[in-house]
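Fig. S4 source data, part A: sequence.
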Amino acid sequence: MDDSYAIKESNVGSDLDRDVESNPRHGGQELGWAPRRQPHQDSSIFSPWHGLSIALLFRRPTHRFFYKAPVIRPLLLRPAFFLLPSFLQTRIRGRTDFDSTAPGHQKKGGGNSQIEKPRALSPTAYLDGMRGIAAFSVFLCHYFYTCFVIAEGWGSGGSNYYFLKLPFIRLFYSGPPMVCIFFVISGYALSLKPLKLIHSASSTSPSSTPARTHGHAYSKLLETLSSLVFRRGLRLFLPPAISTFIIVILLRLGVYEWNRTFASDPEFLRNVQEIHYTRFDSATEQFVDWAYAVLNFVHLWDWDAFAGSTGIDVHLWTIPVEFRASMVLFLTILGTARLRMRVRIGVILGWCVFAFLWERWEMCLFWMGTVLAEGDVAKENAAKAEIELVNRRGGGQEGILPVVQPVVLARTGDVLPRQQLHHQRRHPQSHYNAAAEGTSSDQITSDTRSEGQPRPRSSSAITALSSSVVRTTFFPTFLLLISLYLLSQPDINSHLAPGWIVLTSLIPYWWTEHYRFYQPIGAVIFVYAVSKYPSSACGPSSASARYAAPVFSRYLNPKTMFESSMAQYLGKISYAIYLVHGPVLHTLGYTVMKLTWTHVTGTETDRQYITGFVLASFLVVPLVVWVADVFWRGVDEPVVKFARKVEERVVVVG
């Protein structure tokens, strides 16, 4: 739900008519016109009608409409192709020459256009996937809770003994814990670049004076913070304004009236009946009400719960909260920019405690995201400093004389020989990653299996290996289990749920929203624990994967799940999912559910009711993802570009 990650440009439906222009068979002909035959000269009185009557019956038509088909066809294909999901467009481009005119899928300087290779995953790509899965879980929460009681925990009140209500299992359809994860990720992402600039200002470069380095870094920091503050409002509020405007259009067209009775019928929606936006008598009243709703939605002056939420789409209440917390976060970064790193972390942690005492859980999550980002930036700088030290020891030239650590080779060769070879077969380029760290894959293989036998392990290598496995695998797994349990805190009646009775009794009496006590704590621990796992973007020769046990680094690694193609796709459309799942459910979703229950399964028994809900889900869930994909490309990405262009137009260049 933020704009700190690089967004890939969508070239859907762009420049489709260049295929015709670049086709050598057309020669120097006018674009979009087929070769014309010489018109038939007829001097009779019926000559004006000759081309319309005789040609239609006996010969090829000569009037201009039929020859404009090559021009009309791309105009019809563009919207049709744009409405396809982006993953289908990629497959179509890969199988045909349709991609030859898409600028984002051409290689520069090449005569023959080729599809670009997928970009490598960034070190923080798992956060994109985590945000995408969280957004999808929020949609499932709002889909499920209309029909079932999902807020209570397993065994709450002596009932609710259902498998889907068990801890860990209930997370895939729980919304409040995912909102906490959203806020941690937002704090991390918004802080990452400013913190990098702060750290670069605190470190001096040998080639430049400290004063010049500090001045340039702090100037870039001020420019970055100014850009983030300026674009944040457009980024957060403009897409919801457009989505709610689309809701008003659908309302005036009568689409919401399809399910007006269904939306308040307890026979079908047996738990939560959301607000089904009212249709006014006149369009003027409707649009004036929308304008007031948007004005109230941009709510900056109130920190009450659900402040700024609108009845047009009740799910959007977190966006004003995110904006207010973002502004406070930017002020925090500016105020602590010149502090030492440990002092800055201590100050932010102190503010977290202070905010927690005031039950401002959202600010705690944003600030803790900053603390996690600070730790990662510090580790990255330490790794760079170590590489520079190794290069200087090797003669001052990187890659000429790498310094090979024997313990590292022992860890890699003795623990993961099969995984190393398996990864090299599937990813031959992985030896470059090893070379970047001062060790080539050939050196590792030859050192590991000299004459077909593994090199004997020393006691120091075994000791370092055991401590590294505990630090990089088992300790994060322990934290991960704790975080998942805390995130599974029931939303209501947690004091009646087994396993939560004692924990709920420990919540301070002044904390009003009990379910907001342990869930934020679990969200922070969860993001921290996942960050400690090795990344799938690195091969087994990388430093993060060397010390991980094979079963965890290959199969039980949560970071690889968040870095998968499906999670990355959901991460790209996460904000769009959050914005459109409400109107899709109230229009197409309710229609599908009503038809399924009334014409297929019925609702007389619980089994029929659940069966109808499951059958409807096979169509409702893809519909939400499809509409979110279109909204992402048609609204979300253009808004990001629009905000940057506005900033470029009005900013003072100095």
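Fig. S4 source data, part B ends here. The radius of gyration is 30 Å.
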